[in-house]
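With this grant's support, we have paired protein sequences with backbone structure tokens. One protein thus recorded is set out beneath this paragraph:

_____
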Amino acid sequence: MDTEEFPLPRSRRANERLHALIPGGAHTYAKGDDQYPEDLAPVISHGRGAHVWDVDDNRYIEYGSGLRSVSLGHAHPRVIEAVRRELDRGSNFVRPSIVELAAAERFLATVPTAQMVKFAKNGSDVTTAAVRLARAVTGRPHVAICGDQPFFSVDDWFIGTTPMSAGIPAATTELTVAFPYGDLAATEELLTRYEGEVACLILEPAGPTEPPPGYLSGLRELADRHGCVLIFDEMITGLRWSEAGAQGLYGVVPDLSTFGKALGNGFAVSALAGRRELMERGGLRHSGDRVFLLSTTHGAETHSLAAAMAVQTTYVEEGITAQLHAIGERLATGVREAAAAMGVGDHIVVRGRASNLVFATLDENRKPSQQYRTLFLRRLLAGGVLAPSFVVSSALSDTDIDRTVDVVAQSCAVYRKALDSGDPTPWLAGRPVKPVFRRWA
């Protein structure tokens, strides 16, 4: 497939209709067509394993599946079978289903560092619930977020800190402060400056780089010493780092943690987990003020909880995390070798843990460039690779990886030409892709 010879007329028409009916043309900003080269944002018809087809019937090898949620591949048989078993039995009732008990037992067996769990539908709900709980148990107003990490919630306490802060009162935003990842001294200075006012430290325990030695245990000590709650956002690290998340891999236990994305392999389920002493404040078996922790009509849909149980069982029994790392290592090695062979090894840079690879596109001055990202994405699409990142699923085959590396090599050849010319514009065929968080549309 070559997008120059095979344009996307149905996808283009569908995108126009999407924009007419849905603000932004998608239900997640990261899926918007502004994230793709102009007129080359495919609208998906269906997926199977590591492949997706658009409405123009073009097939792609897909990376970053469902914004990292579909780590086993689309329509994974074991997950679909578990979901189908529940569909004929009803999905939602006026009282808890026995499936909720089974799902909680399965989760806590997989993540033994937690003592209680409550399920919801999306990551924002559980991270905001964690923040609310931290404020309630500490009686403190401020939330300290890791300022080097891109996203925590759609709710005001976080979105107010981004360039898309329209509609959020300044008084809300002022209660959120930031600390840098990996810098214990700066974090301690922040906690000292706001002594007795910070309810929690919330961060992704790991990201594109590994935690510095002693960093997470140092945060644990700081939180204990300053009386605040330590929250790990495990939306991405959960399952991809280990079945028990980053906390299971690194051996540092947070007070609260949040999971989602890979937990349902595409089905909507998230989880807030943590220490019984804190979690029970959202329950009925304590004598303190009640905390409105999580109360969602659809948080315990039986088929989504069945999907989560099937995912966790599959990860444990089939060693999926190890598979993701092996596949990612093969891909990262191939991409780096292809880029180096074409003389752009310093410009197309693969970063991150093997199970969660991203790439940077750098210009002639080795600075991040949306124009060069556009060029690279355009050439990948032309070769049948849909890759806003290089985040892998376990459904990818050696053939898929080899094909991807071949397409990357072809893309790197064009990238080199653009670098030599000093201007990538002739290879863009339209406006460059745009960052998700920006003030103006």
